[in-house]
Design goal:
heterodimer; A: alpha/beta; Rossmann fold; OB fold (Dihydrolipoamide Acetyltransferase, E2P); 2 domains; about 30% strand; elongated; B: alpha+beta; Heat Shock Protein 90; five-stranded mixed β-sheet; rod-shaped
Chain lengths: ~280, ~350
């Protein structure tokens, strides 16, 4: 347990990263394994480096800190992570837990969301050495607790937040998502919701259709539906969520058997309750 | 609606006052032709109540013919004409009422006595109406000055609010927190740089407060503030933030409301630099075109960024302040074309050297 703490620094501002590096230099057991200037790099580096602790800024280009965490989700559940992260070399032990996250930001309004996703600490810029040492101590005890127990659920380790909590935290309370983030191996796609055509449930995944492209995401359809604006995305079927702006018409094939025809000609099944929801939307 | 008729309580007051004025009229009529108090009051009181409604019509006439400078003669003529008509109507009503009463009361008045009564009404009606008109003019003048006062106060409050909001937006706490964090970082690695940054931040804050306290500043002064701001942000964003400026000397001398450009540049940094992976160029372009001053601020936008519906708080604030500044030709337009977001500010070109005749288009 005398292993070094492997730390990753994520901040889009170089001075902020160099400050962290300087402060951390005073802690002999800490090794900085990398620095990332944006969310894309962070997702990749966390997958590859498996750090113990991540210092994470919130406001960054493309992916904010919460979206980075949302994309790490498969990595908390070992069974699922084997399926999605097969391309990513694993360095840590087989059951590597999620890294302890310490947010660093000038904005205090994200604190609540940060604790919803079980951040270890929330550092408000500017902060001093002592405050950082305190955050490190918390992270150490959280990590020790996790190692003592059986990965998750040990003392000091709250249950890992579910995908819904992460997704909700990523978009902020009471608002609908403006974009959907998807991880594809080492690549990350950011898809503005207005570009989504429809989403189809496939076992534990959702297939997100955007024009010619299809993205797979480890998420339940209901959960994704909940995060999207219900006036634009309607659940027309147990397995289908459609962007109403893409719907050309509704066709009746037989009694109680309907399909929507999208502008590009694709047809999607509509269930009875889905039909009612569509009618509500159009009335 | 006449303000005295608008509420039942006031209406009652009008009727009561008019009824009381009926008493002296009854006394006068008794002097001219002896009769019982009952007969005199039965005629005088209703007549005064009628007339009180007639003289209230002066309100509309007064509003139609305000007294101001050269219109005063016209107003007086209009009032005298209306007074005569009002009095005539009153006499007509009086004749009807006197005849009606002479049927009910015994002994009735002689025809000669009724005619004498009506002459009294005609004589009293005109001055009564004119004094009502005078009272109405006074009331309207009082009301106008009151409204003007309130308007001035309202404008002042709106202006003060806009100023406060601008100042608060200016001293954006997150900008300060992030700057302090940068200084904190520099103290270890580059103490000399940390000092320069403290100085820069101090200078920026002092300028912000000084400019914010003034009614207008030159565009050049505002641009110096913007430059100080960008210097500080440069330290945070490094290579990601690049700035291009094209400012005509004639434009720099124009007078503008303080702290108007600053929030636009801050927005540009937030959306164009902070939200873009590679950052980009912020372009500031100020030129004078004839009688107007045009300032444009451009920033790159992330092509994946969702198109925003409506305007952010920053743009709304600037718009509101333009309104308060009171320049009717002042305009703010914002549009996104491709991956560039551009805000254009158009103001009347005030102050500075006039362009030579030949240079104008």
């Amino acid at each position: 347990m005398a292993d070094a703490l492997r730390v990753l620094l994520v901040d889009d501002e170089a001075p902020a990263r160099s400050l962290l590096r300087e402060y951390l230099g005073a802690h002999a057991d800490v090794v900085v394994v990398g620095e990332c200037a944006n969310g894309f790099e962070a997702v990749k580096a966390i997958g590859e480096q498996r750090p113990d602790i991540v210092f994470l800024d919130v406001q960054m280009p493309k992916l904010d800190g919460f979206e980075v965490l949302e994309l790490l989700e498969p990595y908390t559940a070992p069974a699922a992570s084997a399926a999605t992260d097969s391309a990513v070399p694993r360095q840590g032990s087989a059951g590597a837990a999620r890294p302890a996250v310490i947010f660093c930001t000038a904005y205090d309004e994200y604190a609540l969301r940060a604790f919803e996703v079980h951040a270890v600490d929330y550092l408000l810029k500017p902060f001093g050495r002592e405050r950082l040492a305190e955050a490190l101590a918390r992270a150490r005890s959280r990590l020790a607790g996790a190692a003592g127990g059986a990965h998750a659920g040990g003392p000091g380790e709250p249950p890992a937040p579910g995908g819904a909590a992460l997704a909700a935290a990523a978009r902020g309370a009471g608002r609908y998502a403006e974009r959907v983030v998807v991880r594809d191996g080492a690549q990350v796609h950011v898809i503005p919701t207005e570009r989504l055509d429809y989403v189809e449930a496939q076992d534990d995944y959702v297939a997100i259709h955007e024009g010619e492209r299809t993205h797979l995401k480890h998420q339940a359809l209901a959960e994704l539906a909940e995060s999207l604006d219900p006036s634009r995305f309607v659940r027309i079927h147990r397995s289908f969520l459609v962007n109403v702006e893409r719907v050309a018409r509704l066709e009746l094939l037989a009694k109680d058997q309907r399909v929507v025809v999208l502008r590009d000609g694709r047809q999607l099944p509509v269930s009875r309750s889905g039909h009612e929801r569509l009618r509500e939307q159009w009335s | 609606m006449h303000p005295l008729l608008a509420r039942p309580a006031r209406l009652l007051l009008v009727v009561a006052t008019a009824a009381l004025l009926g008493v002296p009229l009854a006394w006068l009529l008794r002097l001219l032709e002896p009769r019982s108090w009952l007969a005199a009051l039965a005629f005088a009181v209703p007549m005064q109540v009628f007339y009180s409604f007639i003289v209230l019509s002066a309100w509309w006439v007064c509003r139609r013919h305000p007294i101001s400078g050269d219109t005063i003669g016209k107003a007086v003529l209009a009032q005298i004409a209306t007074a005569t008509q009002a009095s005539a109507v009153w006499v007509g009503l009086g004749a009807f009422w006197a005849v009606t009463l002479s049927h009910w009361l015994h002994p009735g008045l002689s025809r000669v006595a009724i005619l004498r009564d009506l002459t009294v009404l005609l004589a009293a009606g005109i001055p009564l109406y004119l004094s009502s008109a005078a009272a109405h003019y006074l009331f309207l003048a009082f009301e106008a000055s009151h409204a003007a006062e309130r308007r001035v106060l309202e404008t002042e409050v709106t202006a003060r609010e806009a100023e406060l909001r601008a100042l608060r937006a200016q001293l954006n706490p997150h900008f300060l927190f992030n700057s302090l964090n940068s200084i904190n970082a520099l103290v270890g690695s580059d103490p000399e740089g940390a000092r320069r940054m403290c100085e820069g931040l101090g200078d920026f804050l002092r300028r912000t407060l000084a400019l914010g306290a003034r009614d207008d500043v030159t565009l050049g002064e505002e641009l110096v503030l913007v430059e100080r701001y960008l210097n500080i942000e440069q330290l945070r964003f490094g290579e990601r933030l690049r700035v291009e400026r094209v400012v005509e000397p004639a434009a720099a001398d124009c007078r503008v409301p303080p702290l108007l450009l600053q929030p636009l540049v801050e927005n540009a940094v937030k959306h164009g630099i902070q939200d873009c992976l590679a950052g980009g160029v912020i372009r500031i372009d100020a030129r004078r075109e004839g009688t107007s001053l045009r300032v444009a601020v451009e920033n790159p936008v992330d092509p994946d960024a969702p198109s925003r519906v409506g305007e952010g708080v920053g743009l709304q604030n600037v718009r509101r302040r333009l309104e308060v500044f009171g320049a009717r030709e002042a305009r703010l337009s914002a549009q996104r074309s491709g991956d560039v977001f551009r805000v254009t500010l158009t103001l009347p070109a005030i102050g500075g050297a006039e362009l030579p005749e030949a240079a104008r288009g």
